[in-house]
Amino acid sequence: MFESLSDRLADVFRSFRGSARLTEENVREGLREVRLALLEADVNFTVVRDFVERVREACLGQDVLKGISPAQQVMKIVHDELVSLLGAEAATLKLQGASPAVIMLVGLQGSGKTTSAGKIAHMLRKQKMRPYLVPADVYRPAAIEQLNVLAKQLEMPCFPSTADMKPVDIARAAMAEGHKPDVQASVLLLDTAGRLHVDEPLMEELSAIKAAVNPQEILFVADAMTGQDAVTVAQAFNERLGITGVVLTKMDGDARGGAALSIRAVTGAPVKFVGIGEKLTELEIFHPDRIAGRILGMGDVLTLVEKAQSTINAEEAEALARKMQKASFDLEDFRTQMRRIKKLGSLDSILKMIPGLGGVREKLTQAGGTMPEKELARTEAVINSMTPAERRNPDLLNGSRRARIARGAGVTVAVVNQTVRQFDQMRKMMKSMMSGKNGAMPKKLPAVFSGIPDMGGIGGISPFPQERSSGSNPSAKKRKKRERPKRKKK
């Protein structure tokens, strides 16, 4: 998400570094590149024109603050305008009024409405609400069955629709069912059929459903991969139904970001959620300031911390910190940490949220190193091949045990030796880190990241001391120099 746009904007800010102050000439030149970057990201032309004009006025209307470079000043202005363009503040669901509240999901076929209904239901249940899933798509084969399967996975009620029922009748019956004592729903999620905005009979059907159940929220579900087309369709749906918000799906794909940057300005409806994966837990609230930070390469630590807090038990984290302080952190704990990291998402996405580390993946690829996910999988395979006693006490690992582990993990004995050696180095380093004032962990990265395997020391995040070749290790150079035979004097 936003990779190409982020790279282009980074080049723009670099172009200001050699300038002593902001002038009309360098601002014009920089904003020309900003305009091209936004257009290439498939942002609506009118939105781009207005955005660039606002940035230009802000750049030329301000003096460069003392102690701040022109590049930093321009970045701040662009950041503020991006936040404003994206909606300033996170928009929440407004479910006040009649009970049960109704959320109606609309959009094109294949945009992800059914899956989004399940994701939103999961999120609402965590907020102590009682969602009731209502399949009202009688046109797409197995659409009703798909929502029933999601309901079973989530262990929540689902209205028993059938393909021969009319969508308007389904909506009315579901409202009546939601009031019953055995359901007692607080929110109905109405999954409607996908349709083109030019399909008049089907658009009329949506208007009839809206009139029948009077939904508090009409969420337009858009596939972010469609870019500018999603904005055009959203505008048509908005004119017909008056959408209250947008859900952008497939934002983990190759989305250039144009829909996210355009849709609010064109429709006036805020983006409320973004889908970042296929799992029912992979739905995020859309925070304009955090998205702007990601676009400009500033990271998104708040979202990362929230993810960590939702997957890590506080008591377990405290117990782990005590183990690390006493150097009793074993391979069992290490494996647990790696599994927690997987729950946070791919390492690629995690690194992008940490300020200054967004380019680590590219550096790894350029260096020809092993990608983090592969390294994690290999390390976990080695640990899984050990017995519980070996994981708790790596000192038991003699030659024959290591050979058995290597066969079980499908790796060489050298890989097993490297994993054990690196773990031992990490454990020693953790002990020295935790022996600071009050035994507190240094405020660099959350403790959960102690499970990341060696990534070559790139970006300074590797918990393992990097094993350098003699070409980059000063002590190795000295040994090499001592071992070199002296030349005989002529």
TrEMBL record:
Pfam families: SRP54 (PF00448), SRP54_N (PF02881), SRP_SPB (PF02978). This is Signal recognition particle protein. Residues 456-490 are annotated as: Disordered. Involved in targeting and insertion of nascent membrane proteins into the cytoplasmic membrane. Binds to the hydrophobic signal sequence of the ribosome-nascent chain (RNC) as it emerges from the ribosomes. The SRP-RNC complex is then targeted to the cytoplasmic membrane where it interacts with the SRP receptor FtsY. Its EC number is 3.6.5.4. It comes from the Bacteria. One of its GO terms (molecular function) is GTP binding. It comes from Candidatus Desulfovibrio kirbyi. The lineage of its organism: Bacteria, Pseudomonadati, Thermodesulfobacteriota, Desulfovibrionia, Desulfovibrionales. Belongs to the GTP-binding SRP family. SRP54 subfamily. GO terms for biological process: SRP-dependent cotranslational protein targeting to membrane. Composed of three domains: the N-terminal N domain, which is responsible for interactions with the ribosome, the central G domain, which binds GTP, and the C-terminal M domain, which binds the RNA and the signal sequence of the RNC. InterPro entries: AAA+_ATPase, P-loop_NTPase, Signal_recog_part_SRP54_M_sf, Signal_recog_particl_SRP54_hlx, Signal_recog_particle_SRP54_M, SRP, SRP54, SRP54_GTPase_dom. Residues 476-490 have a biased composition (Basic residues). Part of the signal recognition particle protein translocation system, which is composed of SRP and FtsY. GTP binds at residues 107-114, 191-195, 249-252.
